[in-house]
Amino acid sequence: MRMKQKSNFIIKSILYSVFVLIILLVISMNQLNTVILKKQEYQDYIKEWASNEIGVLFEYENIRFRLSMPGPEIIFYDVDLSVLNPEKNLIKADEIIIGFDIFDSIINKNASIDRFVVKNSNFLSSYADRQGFYIQGLTLEELINVFRLPTRENDIEIIGYDIAVNHSQLDTKKDMSFEIEELKLSSLEIISGQLKKIGGDFSLLNISNSDYQVNKSIDLKGRLNYTNNANGWDLEVEDFYTQTETDRRPLSSFKIHSGKGIGENINAIVINATFLSLDDLGYFITWMPEKYDALYSQYQPSGTVSNFSIDLSLLQQDVINYNFVSRFSNISLNIDSKKIYFSGLTGRVHANSNGGNIEINSNNLHLGLSEYYSNVLNFSDANGTFFWENINENINILTDRFSLSNAFFESQSSIKINYSEEMQLPFADVQTDWNISDIKAAMKFLPIRKMNPTLFSWFNKSFLSGKAINGKTLLRGELSNFPFDKDNGLFYSETRISDMTLNYSEKWPDIFIKDIDLIVDGMHLYSNKNQFSITGNIVNDGRMDIFDLRNPVLILHAPSQESLGAIHTFIKNSPISDFFGGYEKNLELKGGLSLDFDFFYPIMDKNSYEFFVNLKINDSSLEINNFKPPITKINGLIAVSRNYISSNSLTAKFLNQPIKISLSQNQEVNDPYIFVADIKGKAKKEDLARNFEIFDEKNIYGIMDYFASLHFPSMNSVQHRPFKVTIESNLKGIGTDLPLPFKKSVELEKSLTTTIEFSNNDRVKSVGNFGEDVRWNFNFFVTESGWAFDHGAITLGENNYPSAESRGLHIRGKTNKINYDNWMQLSSEEVKRFNIFDHIRSVDLHINDFSFYDQSLVDHRFVIDRGANEWLIEAYGSQLDGLISIPYDFLGDDPLMLNMQSFKISNPITNLGKKTITPDSLPSITVKINDFSISDRNFGSLRADFKRSNDGLRASDIEVIGENFKMNGNAGWVIDELGNGSSHSFVKAKIISNNVEETMEALGYQPLINSKDMNIDIDVKWTGGPSGEFLSDLTGEIKVEFGNGQLNEINPGAGRVFGLMSLVALPRRLSLDFSDVFEKGFGFDEIKASFRLENGSAYTCNLSLKGPAADIGIVGNADLKDQNYNQVALVSTNVGSTLPIVGAVVAGPQAAAALLLFSQIFKKPLKEMGQVYYNIDGLFVDPSVEISNTEQFTLVSDRSGCLYESL
């Protein structure tokens, strides 16, 4: 509480003191006015003091003191201020007021001036060329520096009110003058030598500049306000306008605002103006910096701008930001040293540092391009908006719609322009749609100063009338590369012209064009779609070309379609008939002929023209008698020119592909062929298949080149020869999936030649070759439906054979490889199409590699002849040797017979029994083979007689006799009784052997059982036919019995193992576990087993071995397809030995079933014997044998169904 009372007391005391001080100052001021006004010495002292403080000579008439809010003031009346160096009168004023900072004066005990006010004064101004304005004979900088007082620590504020400026003289190097009607400053403030504020009215009359406008002047009036503060300065010109003798500009305002950044530097400027006339700038150009004077003289701007606004920032940076908006009207500029000129441009612009847009809406635009045109181009309407942007020093300009039009022309364009500093000229992308109502008037759009004068004259004189509609022009590329000769840009223009008269040459009649589509592509001018007439000859879709407008040669191709009678009359009365000597009688030509006019006119050398009159074959077709398909779309001509008559190449289509036809006359005197037509073309696989029945689209692919010749015989030749066609090709590009030797890849080149002779109306002969190892010689009858094969031969290999004269197809020779399966897959369809087997009469082939049903025969010869009811096939080779007879009719009574000395195939046949063959579709089969083997399984002799029945084939007495074994049984392949189309095969047989080791070796197994007694009973069946893929479906029963003998150890990797006898896996392990029992080998008294086959797995519950040292029983299954075991063996020794502890039998319920099962197998109790269990797992060739137990034995027995059988 005491502190608060104390504070209140201090504050009240200060306020009372200040109030008393102010009263004392007022009293003092009154006393000073009284004393000083009466004492001259005080006035002299004050005058000396003021002169020293202000820095100028001070003279006045009267003085007084007063107290104002800023502080005490001294008022001087009728004051003269002057400077000594140079001696000049500076200011005459009614009043000058000097103000003091009261607190600074009290603290520093010194009168401190902080205000200098001038009222009601007149200044004399002048102007010197390039130096600017002078006030009272001093430059503005010198005048301001008068009031800079470096000896003073405090700033002095200089303030002016109601100051008039009288302009007395003009000193310029140019003839420029003006009169100042009024220049009155309503305010002026200078602080610390800096102009802080200035305001007033101005009126300048009769401003003239003889360099800009002779005998013309302009008045300039307005009000100006300028302020300068710590944040920047502002300049405003209001109620501003200019006026000439004939026109007064609209009242406008002009404002400039600046802002400071860091430090004292101006960093931003904003300028706004409501209206400016560019035409008035010329009056003031003398006052502008010299570089702007040069720019003004170069561009010569004209027109007006309104609503002008520009915002500049970052002025102290390398790159200044700006934002500019303005409207403009009737702008005129000269650009690039007057190479580009425009006037009448009206619109709006908005631009900033990153880009902008300009809207153009002009109704009287004039465009001058002096590098291209001698005259100014005038447009009554120009409308559109252009956008541009600055990206990484690149400038992009674009507009999607810019329209130009005048009395005879209208256009709409989309434009994209890109420019960077490294470009010589910008990159332009322009698309323009246009129409011309008067072609003749539009000739002024041709760039005369860029065109050859002769070419320009030709265009100007040739295009006499017409109009163009739907014109389109495209330009894309860097303009420095124009006209884009090296594909580095695009220049393309097209239009449709109608009702045009073209005077293309003084010596030729005019062309009256009804309609023409005219195109300019780069420097290429052409038309392919048109309708015109030449002296009444109607031309549709003729051709006009100037390939290079820099070296222009007009090429005119005018086809005139006339009636055949008129053309025929023309031919009869011209040398053209000499080239048709009547040799066309073997041909049938259909279609039209026409008369063409071709004209070549070098515009630069008009007397060097050339012309051709062509007898042209138009889209005609040619059919060769007795040969199809026809040659279509034939186009060709016979030409007459100024200097010669000739025939040119013919083009056509054959097999739906373009071909070239070359006609030539035989120069050999005695040659029977006088005229040859050479054809070059391509053939696609689908066209070959469509037109020639020998080709199937599924077995041929690609496209090939070929060369063909049509030889026309001379009717007057003593040696009469038939009309013939020769064909040649390297076949590159076309491939076939036909079996060898006709298989070929696309890349491989292989020669094809053939000659087709048309002997007379009903005979055709074809001779040719395919590569070096396939040749043919065919003869056909000609019928109404086509060619019918009569006789001929196909020869494989290099050897020559005499021609076959007997009917049918004869195949002979030697070849490297033939795959019977591939040919049979083909034949199912091909036989139906061509009756191939009906044509074949004989075959005599030596084949190095012959494949059939996955078998491979090496170095065999086959001789095939057609018998009365069957094919007779003789095979000569190490694998097949004998006779095969195949009946024509499989459903007949004649059997298929194999009477072979040897029949050795490499592996089991796997593709019998598939859907393509069914057992009821086969004939009876009789087999007699003396040496039959499959791969390494040698069976010996085979005798079988399969009888055909309604449901398939059955053989009741099959006999196979090997060196040490014999098999007898029956077998068959029949349709299932279910009637669903499925079938199955079965075998019931018995095999006996007196030497098991040699039998196993003969059948391809390791000789693991040495015995002189083996009996095997087989009763099995499987789904499908007798192929090598039956194991997975095998069902039935097999019983095996061996007499006494010896087991041999498996040698992994040494070959197949007889998988049913897993006993052979035990000797190695038992010799380790029972070394004292089996030290002399693994002999046995007998082996017996029966196997139940289910889906390829053989299950046994009684595979047993009885021997002097031990008895063995095995249960489980052997997978015959995957060839692996899942079995358990029980070994019971018959002599004393030490059993492995882990395998010893222990009593218990789980062993009861096992003991019962084996008591039945061995026919004696097991309780007094020692036993051990082993698991047998893994592949047949390398099984794993490990110690097991009764639990595993019981589990495997149960899975195999053995426990059920023992109960």
Spell out the blueprint of helices and strands.
Elements: H1 2-38, H2 40-54, E1 57-59, E2 62-67, E3 72-84, E4 87-100, H3 102-108, E5 113-128, E6 132-135, E7 138-139, H4 140-146, E8 157-171, E9 176-191, E10 194-209, E11 218-229, E12 232-243, E13 252-260, E14 266-277, H5 290-299, E15 302-313, E16 321-335, E17 340-352, E18 355-362, E19 365-369, E20 377-379, E21 381-391, E22 394-405, E23 409-419, E24 427-436, H6 439-442, H7 453-462, E25 463-478, E26 489-502, E27 511-521, E28 524-534, E29 537-540, E30 543-546, E31 553-561, H8 564-572, E32 587-602, E33 610-624, E34 631-641, E35 645-647, E36 650-654, E37 657-665, E38 673-684, H9 685-691, E39 700-713, E40 723-729, E41 734-736, E42 752-760, E43 763-770, E44 774-783, E45 786-796, E46 808-819, H10 820-834, H11 836-839, E47 840-852, E48 855-866, E49 870-876, E50 880-887, E51 896-905, E52 925-934, E53 937-949, E54 952-961, E55 965-975, E56 983-993, H12 996-1002, E57 1009-1011, E58 1014-1023, E59 1035-1042, E60 1045-1047, H13 1067-1073, E61 1083-1084, E62 1086-1094, E63 1097-1106, E64 1110-1119, E65 1124-1133, H14 1152-1162, E66 1170-1179, ...
Parallel strand pairs: 5-8, 45-46, 46-47, 51-52
Antiparallel strand pairs: 1-3, 2-3, 3-4, 4-5, 5-6, 6-7, 8-9, 9-10, 10-11, 11-12, 12-13, 13-14, 14-15, 15-16, 16-17, 17-18, 17-19, 18-21, 19-20, 21-22, 22-23, 23-24, 24-25, 25-26, 26-27, 27-28, 28-29, 28-30, 30-31, 31-32, 32-33, 33-34, 34-35, 34-36, 36-37, 37-38, 38-39, 39-40, 39-41, 40-42, ...
